Amino acid sequence: MPVLYLKHHNIDRTQWDAVVEQSRQRQVYAMSWYLDVVAPDWDAVVALDASGVYITVMPVPWRSKLGIRYIQQPLFCQQLGIYSLAKTIPEATYIAFVQELYRRFRYVASYNFNTGNQLPAILPPAIKSNQTLTLYLSLEKDYGQLYQGYTRDRKMNLKRAQKAGLTLEESGDIEPIIQFFREETAERIYGGVAAKAYALLRQLYQVLQEKGVARLYYTTDSQGRKNSGCLFIVWGGHIVYIFNAAPQHGRKQNGRTLLIDHLIREYAGQEMVFDFESPDAKEPDILHFYQSFGPEAKPIPALQYNQLPKGVRFIREARMRLVRKLRGLA
Description:
Elements lengths: L2 E4 L6 H10 L9 H7 L4 E6 L5 E7 L1 E4 L2 E4 L11 E2 L6 H14 L2 E6 L15 E11 L4 H6 L3 H12 L3 E5 L3 H10 L10 H17 L2 E7 L5 E10 L2 E8 L2 H5 L2 H13 L5 E3 L8 H8 L4 E11 L3 H17 L4
Parallel strand pairs: 12-13
Antiparallel strand pairs: 1-2, 2-3, 3-6, 4-5, 7-14, 8-13, 8-14, 9-10, 10-11, 11-12
Helix pairs in contact: 2-7, 5-9
Protein name: BioF2-like acetyltransferase domain-containing protein
Pfam family, one: Acetyltransf_6
InterPro entries: Acyl_CoA_acyltransferase (IPR016181), BioF2-like_GNAT_dom (IPR038740), PG_Glycine_Bridge_Synth (IPR050644)
């Protein structure tokens, strides 16, 4: 089974998308049109069958800084990793694909595989493997059963939102949710949020609309004010809770609870999975909110390593220490 590293312009997109769509690991993040937005010029590692057809693929979202190419998980792309037509992915495939990264990149800041992947225990010594997680809620049960899985507090807050007289609307305008995020959330994020992140979200939303997979909802209160917004991607048996925000007055009215419940209610009884795109343990309040809907934790394998020259590493680490100190986080 030949394994090749392909530059962006050499990737056969038709074959690529066919593998992702037919794989057991299929996710919207790995579709070529999605990668084109979140990781322009992405490369790939692919495995071929005897006739030269793609059977296993892995996106490589590389960047370049100071002339150094490195890998970093893109924004709005929680999972990547290996997607295969095989029923199971052999350990040898994982090793061969990771070795391709190791040969070509001296620095991997972060690279998340997907919940259908399992990294082998034996990897080059310099590579650090760890896990993050997401939360999946299977929607195969009817809504009544799913509702019973909500915590007592979540049921109570849902009833409060319903009694508050909030109205729900599906929209094609991404700007209100971006404004909510700028005003209420961005300042609490370590390192801040660059303007290009909002531009990326706008571009991604446009493509999601064109593909017919975006579901953008807002709630409006009795005074006619939008008070929460949620953007979902519905594709390949998954509902991805990709972005959300609410102004101060909206958070108290539980608009996002109402919107998530609406999607769960709409797709209940189908072979669908609601993916909360869970944050890490540094955001316990958000994690607790997601857990209150009754999902199951799913591990996401991740790897990183730094084989840069010591001088380059020292400069990078010193810069990070300075940033933390300036932000009062040292």
